[in-house]
């Protein structure tokens, strides 16, 4: 049995589905079900007896203690986080509460549980914390990619809160001996991603004939990893990673934001013809403190764990667009009410560049 936190969100739900598809080991999924946590993401396994869903907060120490006591997991995989940079600029408090305070409370209860285990269960236990490459800050165009030894230099409230949580993980390992693992991944894309992020937002707007808002000149660079590849990497780290270590996960796919949007427009023109999607691209005022470039050096995880991404950006993007085209009912269910209010608040006031 493993305990997954945040398993109804984008990456977490894909991990849960992948986990249940690959083996027989059951899991408990603890999720607060904020705006980005969607039970519909797990509709395909809602009746699977191997899955126990519990709605709750990682900061609820009594609940976490109860789950640990009742289910006796051999590992905890922590996806629970606020994760959208624009939202962190608009309201940083929620990011501090979940990503820093919540991680602290979760760590403390897991530490107490782990210290009470007998051998060999105590030696086999793992706590895997899923983080982001944004903690490393911004790279110049010619700088070498982020390695696990790159100094932290977060530039947004989101990345600062994740950097703080990473430091807590490190400290709990070095001070208490808790067998922690940390992964820092590049930009994810794929099925079930809430359409506030770049790729699903562009797909959603394009299909409605709405403007495709691109920040600044669209020259900011990100490395992209397909979510199923990311989940595979997490499984490898959980199975074979060395306690106390950090592993960077990337997709070997550096693209400017404009290149990503152009690729999406061209795919949609092929799969849903009839609209000049590129004509919808609209350059808008950049967000404050927009990091120029992220890039991942994946040598360590390849060398130590034998992991490399299977999907190219082209193959992963095609799968992603095909999923959204085939699952418009899912999109419609998450793009009303609060979502539309957020889009209006974030984009309506941005001047056309």
Q: What value does the Rg take, in angstroms?
A: 20 Å
Fourth-level CATH superfamily of the domain at 2-189 and 226-250 and 290-311: NAD(P)-binding Rossmann-like Domain
Secondary-structure-derived class: alpha/beta
Largest sheet, in brief, is: 7 strands, parallel
Order of helices and strands: EHEEHEHHHEHEEHEEHEEHEHHHH
Q: Count up the helices.
A: 13
Strand numbers in spatial order across the main sheet: 3-2-1-4-5-6-10
Terminal-residue CA separation: 52 Å
In the predicted model, the low-confidence regions spanning at least 5 consecutive residues are none
CATH architecture group name of the domain at 2-189 and 226-250 and 290-311:
3-Layer(aba) Sandwich
Classify the fold: give the CATH topology of the domain at 2-189 and 226-250 and 290-311.
Rossmann fold
Mean of residue pLDDT?
95
Gross morphology is globular
CATH class of the domain at 2-189 and 226-250 and 290-311: Alpha Beta
Helix content: 40-55%
How many β strands by DSSP?
Answer: 12
- Strand share of the residues? 15-25%
């Amino acid at each position: 049995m493993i305990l997954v936190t945040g398993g109804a969100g984008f990456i977490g739900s894909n991990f849960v589905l992948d986990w249940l598809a690959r083996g027989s080991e059951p899991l408990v999924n603890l999720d607060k079900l904020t705006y980005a946590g969607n039970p519909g993401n797990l509709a395909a396994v809602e009746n699977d007896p191997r899955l126990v869903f519990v709605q709750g907060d990682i900061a609820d120490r009594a609940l976490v203690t109860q789950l640990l006591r009742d289910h006796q997991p051999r590992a905890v995989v922590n996806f629970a986080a606020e994760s959208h940079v624009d939202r962190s600029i608009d309201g940083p408090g929620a990011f501090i509460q979940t990503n820093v305070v919540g991680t602290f409370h979760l760590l403390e209860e897991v530490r107490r549980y782990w210290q009470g285990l007998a051998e060999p269960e105590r030696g086999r236990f793992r706590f895997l914390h899923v983080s982001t490459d944004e903690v490393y800050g911004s790279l110049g165009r010619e700088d070498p990619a982020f390695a696990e030894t790159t100094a932290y230099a977060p530039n947004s409230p989101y990345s600062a809160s994740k950097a703080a949580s990473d430091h807590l993980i490190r400290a709990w390992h070095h001070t208490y001996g808790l067998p922690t693992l940390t992964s820092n991944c590049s930009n994810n894309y794929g099925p079930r991603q809430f359409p506030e992020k770049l790729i699903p937002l562009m797909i959603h707007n394009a299909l409605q004939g709405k403007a495709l808002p691109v920040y600044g000149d669209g020259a900011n660079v990100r490395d992209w990893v397909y979510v199923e590849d990311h989940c595979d990497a997490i499984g490898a780290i959980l199975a074979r990673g060395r306690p106390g270590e950090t592993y960077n996960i990337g997709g070997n796919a550096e693209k400017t934001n404009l290149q990503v949007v152009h690729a999406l427009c061209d795919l949609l023109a092929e799969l849903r013809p009839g609209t000049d999607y590129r004509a919808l691209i609209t350059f808008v005022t950049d967000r404050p403190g927009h990091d120029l470039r992220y890039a991942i050096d994946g040598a360590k995880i390849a060398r130590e764990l034998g992991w490399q991404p299977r999907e190219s950006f082209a193959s992963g993007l095609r799968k992603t667009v095909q999923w959204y085209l085939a699952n418009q009912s899912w999109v419609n269910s998450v793009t009303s009410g609060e979502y539309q209010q957020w889009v209006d608040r974030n984009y309506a006031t941005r001047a056309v560049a």
